[in-house]
Structure formats: structure tokens, C-alpha cells
Amino acid sequence: MNTLLKGQVAVVTGAGSGIGAAVAVALADAGATVVVNHPNVPAPAEEVVGKIKSNGGTAIALGADVSKEDEVIGMFRDIVAQFGTVDILVANAGLQRDSPFIKMSLADWQFVLNVNLTGQFLCAREATREFLRRGPDSSRSVATGKIICMSSVHQVIPWAGHCNYATSKGGIKLFMESIAQELAPHKIRVNAIGPGAIKTPINRVAWETPAAEAALRTLIPYDRVGVPEDIAKAAVWLASDESDYVTGTTLFVDGGMTLYPGFATGG
Ligand code: BGC
């Protein structure tokens, strides 16, 4: 337990598993009160809340589908009613629906874009409205608010068979940078984290057998598959005053996956 985020309220979307769950636990360990959002599937989120409480932290689970405007507005209304305000948003909710381009259904294209990109737009907009309503309060944080967009190495690495997902992450990059530019005068910091291959349910097939993990490691110069805690540590830093001069940046936490590993020996 440290005190980097003491007295602050954080919302983590899609926090019932994987990276979101680890981020929620780490923010609470740093002293934040954490809202563990889930897409109306309470059991895993309640488990994360239980873990936070057993670590001595404060958390609640709140259901909302981030791709639905009324649900997002309702969630932020609930949070402000319960905790007074919000200081930190980690817009993490994201998913994959993979298929070859020519076989991709419109439904799979739209579903991924709706959750991964529109979900970040809706949550960031409601968080920002609350930051501006509350205004600066240096007893909470130097910045008036902090937004962390969960992106991916696939905001820069094209990904055959996953064009909906890569498009959503490429979109997050310019969404994040555009609102960072717009909100900096209001002392709202907006950044992204670009995780590489992290062991979570979303990519289980890529690491669950020794052969799959060995193949995956050929894409990672640092030669290990990441764990959710690698991302959680970066999120705590970006949410805290320790990163007060950082805005509009994507922090890749990827063991070097974005370093064109194929060129280590070729070219
Ligand atoms: C994807 C994972 C993938 C990783 C590296 C992530 O954004 O969700 O499925 O393993 O990027 O390719």
C-alpha cells in the first residue's frame, strides 16, 4: 500500500478480469477509491472488489455497458452521488472478435468499434464533464483530472485477421491525442498505455501451451510474455502526480514488441 493516489476516486472500465482487474487492484493499493466497472456481469467484478477490500482498500462494482450512452451517463451519475466526484478514468474495456477481412461480419466490425472506441469516447466525455464541474483541487491532485486510455501495440502494428481491433486501437491513438491537446489548458491529462502481449483471457491461445508461448516470444525482444501487473504499475504512475508533465503520450509496455523484432537480424 502506498499513498500516491490517496483520497482520489478512480473508475476502471472492464475491470472484472485481465488488465482491468490488475489496474483496479493497483490503484486501490495506491490509496484510490476504485469503481470496478463491468458490462453487467457482476460476479467477476465482485471478486475484484473482494480482493481490494482484503488488501485494506475501498472499492465498489458498478455495471454499465460502455458502448451505451445512457448506461455510461448513469454510471457517472451514480459515482458522483456516492463519492462526490471522479479524479481518474482508466478507459480499459476492450475485446476482440477476430476473423479474416473478407469474412468479417458488419456485426463483428461494429461490436468491436462500439466497445473499444465509442466506449472510450463516452467514458472520457463523462469523466471530463465531471472534472470540469468540480474544477481544480490541489488537495486531491495537481491535475484537475487524469484519463488513461487502454490502447495496444496494435495502434501502430497492423494486424492481419484483426482489422476491426487494430482499427479501434489506431482510433484510440488520435482520439487520445486530440482530447489531450484540447483539455491540457484545463489541466486535464490524457495518456494511453500500449500493452504488448500480456497473459490475459483475451489472448489465451497465444500463450497457453509452451509451443504457443515460444512462438509469441519471438515477437518480444525482452523475451518474456507480460503480466497484467506490468500494465498496472504504468497505470498508477500515469494516474499520479509523479507524471504531472506527461500528457498526450502513449506509454508502450510491451517488452519491445514495437521495435520491429524481425529487423534484429534482417534488413
Ligand atoms: C491483443 C492481444 C495480443 C497483443 C499483442 C493485444 O492488444 O489484445 O490479443 O496478444 O495485443 O499482439
Automatic annotation (TrEMBL):
Transmembrane stretches in the record are: none
Could you confirm whether the keyword Oxidoreductase appears in this record?
A: yes
Q: Which SUPFAM superfamilies match?
A: NAD(P)-binding Rossmann-fold domains
- Pfam families, alphabetically? adh_short_C2 (PF13561)
What keywords tag this UniProt record?
Oxidoreductase
MF GO annotations: glucose 1-dehydrogenase [NAD(P)+] activity
Keyword Transmembrane present in the record's keywords: the answer is: no
Documented EC number(s): 1.1.1.47
**Which family does this protein fall into?**
Belongs to the short-chain dehydrogenases/reductases (SDR) family.
Name listed for the protein in its UniProt record: Glucose 1-dehydrogenase
Organism in which the protein naturally occurs:
Tunturiibacter psychrotolerans
